[in-house]
Structure formats: structure tokens, C-alpha cells
């Protein structure tokens, strides 16, 4: 049986980085993060939204994320998954312990994202901006013995979002909320997508932030690409999901910190039905 083998798009959407409510970094300021992200799944959401079992498949990614303020209104953004390992465990018979199918793994770079963010409005504790991110097809869209061990989708996409954020006091502690809506134009026969999400965080102590996120992708189902590639495995076209996640970020110094994130899709189509975990070290220069 062939099914969803890799959802590299999650590496980007599930690894949204911890940032302040201030959308633009400011000239000369920046935020940089080295992350390790892992997803191991033995079940997936089907195209009808049901959950089916699958052979245990894993995705491990090491990435660099960065934001830098060119001016007070213009930031450059990059996401570089410089090492991605897609693997499947060996299938062992529960009856006699014999190996039914050997395990396999592929190591490669993933799809790189580059973008810019432009500040549209800033009033007191409110900020409005727009972001353009370009997804470069630098990963492998066919790899492994059956071509299903992808680290990228092979298409060039353009995601444009409108982002709004506000900071405030909650229980006498600094807090923020931000939200976005966006449109993702995809090429190579993939369907376009509508994106939206919301994030909120609170500074519990002088060095500890706790935050939660909800993100969603909805397919317009206007592509020409079949739900199956030449090898028959489903990959990244017409995926849909709602994910819920939480993150803690601890500042070791005023600039250096560590973070831990847990995110899971609570509903979806053509996507893994298991949570992802990521950990990172970040540098916040203000």
C-alpha cells in the first residue's frame, strides 16, 4: 500500500518561529534560530479526513531561520532546511518476527524559503504588515527506491500574507496576539491555498515566554496534478489541516535563548495524524 510519504510543507508551517508582537525587526536588528524538528507517524488523514494506519515513516530536519531589518519598515526573511532525513522503519511480522520490508532512508536538503516583510502601519501597540515568501524547489521531489522519499515538492510557490499584531498587559504581565491571512500561489499543477493563523503569548517571568498557535491550510482544489505521483504515493497536493501547538522560549541572556515546540494536526486531509516536536537555540538582537 502506498500512502502519504512526506509532508515537507509541515517543516515550514509547524516551525513558525518565536517572535515579538512587533512585526518589523527595525533597522539592524535580527532574529536567528537553529532548530531540530521531528515527526514520526504510523497513521495519516486520508483525502476524506478519516484516519488510516501506515508503516512508520519519519521526518527529521535541521534548519536555520533568520529575520533581519534592512530598514525600520522592511525585513528580509529566510528559512533554510539544510538537512532533512526521510526514513521508514523496517516492517516486521508480528507472527514470526521476520522482516517483511527493509527499512530505507534518504538524506537531502529541503525546500528553501526566502521573503520580505513590509510594515504598513504602526499605532501605539498595534502593527500591520504584509509578507511575501517564495518557496524554492531546492529539495528532492522524487527519491528512494519508489520515489516517495521526498524532501521537497518540486514547485515554486509564492505566499503573500497580511499580518496584524498587538501587545498588551495580561494579569500585569507583557502579552501579545497576532494573526494572519494569506494566499499561496502554487505552480507545476499544484492547487492554490488559503492560509490563516493566530498566535498569542505571555511573558510569565523575566526570561520565560509561553505561547500558543493555531494554523490552517485550505486547498482551492484548482490544480491539475493528480493526488498521486508516478509512483502512486500521495504527496503535498490538496493537503488541508488545522494544527494546534504550544511553545516555551527561555532567554538565557538578554539575546540568547532556547525553545521547545509541540504541534499537532487536529483535523486534516492527506497529512500525517501525529504530532511534531522541535527544539531550537535562538539569537534575538534588538
TrEMBL record:
<keyword id="KW-0732">Signal</keyword>
<protein>
    <recommendedName>
        <fullName>Transporter</fullName>
    </recommendedName>
</protein>
<feature type="signal peptide">
    <location>
        <begin position="1"/>
        <end position="21"/>
    </location>
</feature>
